[in-house]
Predict the 3D structure of the following.
Amino acid sequence: MSWLQSNTDEQTQEGPFGSPGGLTRRAFLSSAVAAGLAAAETAPAGAQVPRARGAWTNVTANVGGKRWGFGGLTYVACVPGRDEVIASVAGNGLWSSSDGGGVWIPLGTKGQIRHRTHQILFDPQNPRTYWVGGSYAAGVFKTTDGGTSFTQLGDVQHVDGIGVDFSDPYRRTLLAGIHEKTRNVYLSVSAGATWRNIGDGLPAGTNYSSEVVVVTDKILLVGVGGVLGQKTSGIYRSEDSGKSWAPAAPFGPAGPALLAANGDIFWSARGGKLYKSADKGASWKDTGTQAPSTLIEMPGGMLAALRRGQVVVSSNGGQSWSQVGPKCPVAGYGLAYCEARRCFYVNQPTQQTISNGIYRLDVS
C-alpha cells in the first residue's frame, strides 16, 4: 500500500465553528502534543531560553470595536523590527497596537478588510509591506505603508494560505489556497493583478488544498489536508510553476508552514508530528517530537509554539522543547513574538465579543 492510499483514512477533529478553517487548524494538536513534549522540557545546553517577567496581562482593551464578527479574533502577528502587534477581528479588519496592547487602532480604510485573516506575510526587506490572506470575503490584500492603506489583489475570494516569491525583488509570483475547497490553488504572476487556478493539476481525490508555500517562481508547495476522511492528504510539490505536481510527503498539514530565515521549512502535521525540509520541500524529515500548534520563528532561529496555552520554545529545530513562563489564562489559538518589546502575544477565537481575547507575556 502506498502512502497515498494509507493516508486517506487520516482521523481529524472538527473545530468549534464546524470547519477545519477554525480552531482545528492550529489548536486540535494540543491534546496530542502533551505526551510528546512532556519528556523534552529541558532546554539544550547553552540555549538562551526566554524567562517570563511576571504573569500574563490581558491586553484585549478596545480591539475590534464594540461588536465582532463570527469567529472573533482569528490571527495575531508582530511586525518585525517594530514595537507593533496586529490582530485580526472577523468582519472588523486589522487592528494595531504600539503600546503593548493598551490601545488598539483600526488599520486601513474602514470596512476594507472584512475577511477572517488566516495568514500575514511580511516582506523581509521592508516589513511595512505585507500581504494578508483570509476567508469568507475578499481574499488577498497588500499594504506598502504599514497598514495605513490596503489594496485588494485581484478578485480571488475565500482564501486560507498565501505565498509570495521573496526571491524575486518585484514579488510577482503569489499563491493562494482556497478555504474548504479541493484542487483549488490560485497562482498570480502579475503581483496579484490576475489569478488562475492551478489546483486542478493536483490528483483527483485529494483533500482541501488550503495551505501553500512559494519557494521560487518555479518551485511551489501545496499542503493538502482537512476533514474529508476519504480524501488523500499530503504535501505536493511542483517544479514548473504548477503545471505538474508530485507527492513530496505523506502528511496533511495543520495550518500554514513556517519558512525559517535559513531556508528550512517546518510544517506541523495533523496527528501531531513536526516535519522539516532542508531542500526546498523535496524531502521531509520527522523532527522526532510531537508538534505544538501555531509555530513561529523568533530572532536567532529559535522556534516558539503553543501547547494548550503554554508557550514552548526550541533552539534545535524542534527536537526538544522548553516551557516559558506560566500558562496563559486561555487555551490560545494564535501566537506572536515582539522582539522590540520582548513579549509574547496569545489570542483565542470566539463566537462573540469577549473581554479576554488577547494576552501578553513579557520575557527577559
